[in-house]
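A reminder from the course coordinator: this example appears on the midterm review sheet, so study it carefully.

Given structure:
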């Protein structure tokens, strides 16, 4: 998935949850941050960022901040912070026949976004050539520490509800997938930020034996966009220290 009109800028600060200021072509401009997380490990003064023109030219902020270069001891790399991107690249990969969900019988013949099930909206509902219906809930992951990615990067109640909803789907005869989309490339291990989200951790521990399947992919990321790259191991008890706490 590619952006139109991406420009490089330098990050200045974040005056509010959804607003950042950047230096673009020698001018300080306000941008919309398309992410609800903290981003404290990447949104640092002087960081190189990618901004794209807002789809609505009448909006107060004319730019969206969508990606940041993170500088680390093990190299610099792009982190996509656009919370709409995980669903976009998932749909793109499924439509192209490039994303295979484990233990899914047949080929995918239908894959619809934003479907209501129970008292929640699920990111995707699909059906295969065998008639098997399935649900997919995606979670974007942007928090990296020492080459490992941890989810989430901020406290979340909605994610716990989503996991329980997937369990309910299994009870009703659907297949159910929790799909972690890592918005960084070359990540071999995804884990949970257990100190940040103990209830989510327990919910996922309960969901796996219940039949909910966990899938994770890292992505190829640059200033111009993001595409799914390859599967990544999900290791629920991998060591992880939240860099935002230090």
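Designed residues:
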């Amino acid at each position: 998935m590619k952006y139109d009109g991406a420009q490089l800028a330098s990050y200045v600060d974040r005056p509010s949850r959804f607003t950042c200021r950047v230096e673009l072509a020698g001018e300080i401009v306000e941008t919309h941050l398309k992410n609800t997380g903290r981003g404290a490990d990447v949104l640092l003064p002087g960081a190189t960022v990618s901004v794209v023109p807002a789809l609505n030219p009448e909006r107060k902020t004319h730019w969206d901040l969508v990606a940041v270069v993170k500088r680390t001891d093990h190299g610099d790399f792009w982190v996509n912070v656009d919370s709409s991107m995980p669903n976009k690249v998932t749909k793109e990969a499924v439509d192209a026949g490039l994303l295979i969900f484990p233990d899914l019988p047949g080929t995918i013949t239908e894959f619809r976004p934003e479907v209501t099930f129970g008292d929640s909206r699920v990111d995707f509902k699909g059906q295969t050539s065998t008639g098997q219906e399935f649900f997919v809930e995606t979670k974007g992951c942007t928090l990296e520490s020492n080459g490992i990615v941890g989810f989430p990067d901020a406290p979340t109640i909605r994610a716990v509800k989503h996991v329980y909803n997937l369990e309910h789907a299994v009870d009703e005869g659907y297949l159910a997938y929790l799909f972690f989309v890592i918005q960084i490339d070359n990540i071999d291990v995804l884990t949970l930020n257990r100190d940040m989200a103990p209830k989510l951790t327990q919910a996922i521990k309960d969901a796996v034996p219940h039949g909910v399947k966990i899938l994770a992919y890292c992505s190829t990321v640059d200033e111009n966009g993001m595409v799914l790259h390859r599967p990544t191991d999900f290791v629920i008890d991998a060591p992880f220290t939240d860099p935002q706490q230090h």
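Residues 84-234 form a domain with the Trna Endonuclease; Chain: A, domain 1 fold (CATH 3.40.1350.60). The CA atoms of residues 106 and 131 lie 8 Å apart.
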